[in-house]
Amino acid sequence: MKRYISIFCVVAAAFTLSLLAFRQDDEGYSSFKDRFLQLINQTRTRGCNCGGTWYPPAPPLVWNNQLEDAARGHAKYMARRNYFSHDSKDGRSMTTRIVQAGYQFKGWKSFMSGENIAFGQQTIEEVQAGWFKSEGHCKNLMNPGFKEVGVAEKDRFWVQDFGGRVPFSPEQQRLMKEGKLRLIQRD
User: Fold this and answer.
1) Closest listed residue to residue 116, CA positions, set 93, 140, 100
2) Would the pLDDT of 101 be above 90?
3) Rounded to an integer, what distance in angstroms lies between the CA atom of residue 161 and that of residue 64?
């Protein structure tokens, strides 16, 4: 009987430790997202210079898990292959990867996507500061057309994917349902 109680205690302790580890990882994950959003949105609410161009304040970005999935996939892909590029070696573009991760454009009035990548930075603060100092990366961060963001890091490969989708207005939706407004899809 004592043997069974000992085994039960070991199993219970292992289960409890795994739950604690999960909670810590989950909290770390939340703080990763929160820290990125905090740093981005601090600057977006103030406005900033990107190179020689002033960008006025922009609405805050919100986190999007599909964009995060696309960013994570590309960060892992670059880390595994030890290369650095917006284009995958298999020919996929940033937009293709974002759409494949589930961030769809069908059914939206407009759709846009963007991406920042970096390598070597060790902290969120370091990579964000670098992106804001780089004119092209800063323009993505300050673009008011981008509404959502997802970020990932793997072995110091950082990927930040942006998305901007605008829904049809209720009036436009009503007219489409009634057949009075037709969409023409461009290739």
Assistant:
1) 140
2) yes
3) 9
Q: HEC profile for 57-104?
A: CCCCCEECHHHHHHHHHHHHHHHHHCCCCCCCCCCCCHHHHHHHCCCC
Q: What is the pTM of this model?
A: 0.78
Q: Which residues pair with 17 in a beta bridge?
A: none
CA distance 94 to 165: 16
Torsion angle defined by CA atoms of residues 134, 135, 141 and 144, in that order, rounded to the nearest 10 degrees: 170
Q: How many CB atoms lie within 10 A of CB 139?
A: 15
What are 2's two structure tokens? 């004592």
Choose among 79, 75, 80: nearest CA to 94. 75
Percent of the chain whose predicted confidence (pLDDT) is above 90: 65
Residue 133 to residue 147: CA distance in whole angstroms: 21
Task: State the number of CA atoms in the 13 A half-sphere of 156 facing the CB.
Answer: 6
